[in-house]
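Project standup — Tuesday

K.O.: blocked on the structure for the chain from last sprint. Re-posting the sequence here as requested.
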Amino acid sequence: MRSHIGHKIVCVRYGQGDEVINVALECEDCHVILVDLEDGDTVSKELAEDAGKTIAHVWHVDDVMGQAKERHINLSDQQCLEILQLIDRGKDASVGINWDVIDTVTDLYLDGDIRI
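H.V.: unblocked you, prediction finished:
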């Protein structure tokens, strides 16, 4: 867990409606599940209720890489991760994260205009 100090950690609820099948704590910076509490595990009522009040859209290095390949740009996994980190740092809730944002940040990154 120490390697995730300072990262963006989110609580995610899995299930439909009011039913909670699973609750997980996930690191959005590393795209890994840190704690996974499946049905039958002890989950606080507060944790389960709060998880049902949020949504999250997850972007993966494969999304960045696929978008770059469509533009005939070859990127490494590390470059894609750095682009995702830059997007996360500069995100604007008015704009959101979309393919145009990924393209723009990729171009700025490759041109050396922004760095981690």
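K.O.: great, moving the ticket to review. The longest strand covers residues 32-38. DSSP finds four helices and three strands in the chain.
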